[in-house]
Amino acid sequence: LFIPFIKFCINERSNGTKKSWDFMQTHDSVSVLIFNTTSHCFILVKQFRPAVYMSEWERSKLKPLQPAEEESAEPAPAEPKVPEEDKAGETSEGTSSHQPPASAGVTYELCAGLVDKPNLSLEEIARQEVLEECGYDVSVTKLRKITSFRSGVGVTGSKQTMFYAEVSDENHVGEGGGKPQEGELIEVVKVPLHEAMTFAFDESIPKTMGVIFSFIWFHSNMSPKYKISTNV
Amino acid sequence: LFIPFIKFCINERSNGTKKSWDFMQTHDSVSVLIFNTTSHCFILVKQFRPAVYMSEWERSKLKPLQPAEEESAEPAPAEPKVPEEDKAGETSEGTSSHQPPASAGVTYELCAGLVDKPNLSLEEIARQEVLEECGYDVSVTKLRKITSFRSGVGVTGSKQTMFYAEVSDENHVGEGGGKPQEGELIEVVKVPLHEAMTFAFDESIPKTMGVIFSFIWFHSNMSPKYKISTNV
After folding, report:
1. Is B74 contained in some domain?
2. How far is A170 from chain B (nearest CA, A)?
3. Which of A41, A49, B64, B223 is spaced 20 to 30 Å from A94 by Cα?
4. What is the DSSP pairing of strand A29-36 with strand A158-167?
5. Which domain of life is it from (chains A, B) (predicted)?
6. Would residue B59 count as lying in a domain?
7. ipTM
């Protein structure tokens, strides 16, 4: 799920200025919580997001001495378990105070994609994204719908349907990584089950609400089947 | 949290056309899960969202015989507990097949607001929104941070911090409803605790992921204190 997300702005004034009522038309989307039953890991994607980077850049201009470091006064609720270099919001040596490091634009997200192929079902689109982004070949029948909701109600008003997919190492048929020719720059990341809730609520790890929601959904719905740490 | 959400588009070409890399700059935001301990209800806001309405309108053009009725083949996982007239995605008698009813643009959301006052803390902004939108006067010290995350990673890249606030009928000092002069059209809605999880996973009730996530967070974190139905 990358840049083609935005199709066009409507309600633009003829002179090119924007009204305060602008909103964007987009496609609906699917997202998938992937759980590898062989390694007992969740499979996420890690992406550089230009919009997130710009947001951090704006923040760094407001706080020139502490670029992208608004969290310092608020300790994370649990001890971080991910490598330090994976954390955004840190100043790398050698970068200017007005230029956050590229890592400041990175977020951890669920595998996701746009519903832009009218002949495919939501499940078929989800299946394609799991294969393209994460390299797992999962049958459509193995996709379980978690729920659907409105995303970006102030901007796009589109609908996202979230699925859960169990995969195994046997389904791992490729490297994933998305489609570089479409501008996707995706890294596949594994989050071990026993670290999942700590990961979810560690605010120093930049992520979407979808990651947190789906992890806590798994905890509530799959805990009889898989043991998950509850140290939050 | 309404229309001023969108400030301006950047990366616009000088001739007014849009690049595929467009994104929007916005303020960070706060959202608040409000629980009334007197009536054992969650307090949500119900808003007409132009972007959601336009999304449904576009959908209705794709399916002229079944406007905004994409859910028909997918029965909701639990029996709906809200009045029928509260549901979007229905065709009202007398409306054209190309004009969904206004209810199609309505969503249930957490009380929320923009972080657009540099002198106020996140908690103080959250407190103001609870008062303005929902009419409850809650002390800043009663606000508990749930977590924070990236919202709209493809478009805005801004950060949202989610709080939990317990209120009682004694804190109810006004009607709420937001600021009509700023275009806000907000109705305060109560969701009883024992219906919360059914509400959260009833896909025929249009809502944001924040509602679902915060309800399930409450279920995971507050269930020793308050009993919540788990019929999902």
Report:
1. yes
2. 31
3. A49
4. parallel
5. Eukaryota
6. yes
7. 0.77
pLDDT at A181: 81
Q: Answer yes or no: is A230 within a domain.
A: no
Beta-carbon separation of A210 and B209 below 8 A: yes
Collect all residues of chain B within an 8 Å Cβ-Cβ radius of residue A217: 216
Query: What is the DSSP code string of A153-176?
Result: TTTT-EEEEEEEEEE-GGGB-S--
Disruptive mutation site among A17, A29, A150, A186 for chain B (greatest number of B CBs within 10 Å): A150
Please give, rounded to a whole number of angstroms, the shortest distance from the CA of B183 to a CA of chain A. 10
Q: Which residues of B touch A8 (CB under 8 A)?
A: 18
Please give the residue range of the domain that contains residue A155: 3-7+24-49+106-222
Cα radius of gyration rounded to whole Å, chain B: 19
Q: Which residues contact B142 (CB under 8 A, 6 or more apart)?
A: B165, B166, B167
Q: Domain of B83: which CATH number? A: 3.90.79.10
Q: Is the pLDDT of residue B98 over 60?
A: yes
* Angstroms from B139 CA to nearest CA on chain A: 20
For residue A13, the model assigns a pLDDT of 37
- CA terminus-to-terminus distance, chain B: 30
For residue A116 the two structure tokens come to 């832009």
Assess whether pLDDT exceeds 50 at residue A221.
yes
**A121 in a structural domain:** yes
Q: What is the pLDDT of residue B97?
A: 57
According to the model, what pLDDT value does residue B182 have?
Answer: 77
Two structure tokens written together for B210: 């924040």
Distances (CA, A) of B75 to A66, A208, A217, B122: 51, 28, 20, 40
- Domain count of chain A? 1
Asked if A105 and A56 count as a contact pair (C-beta separation under 8 A), the reply is: yes
User: Residues in chain A, how many?
Assistant: 232
Q: Which residue has the higher pLDDT, A194 or B12?
A: A194
Chain A: residue whose CA lies nearest to B27? A55
Judge if pTM exceeds 0.80.
Answer: no
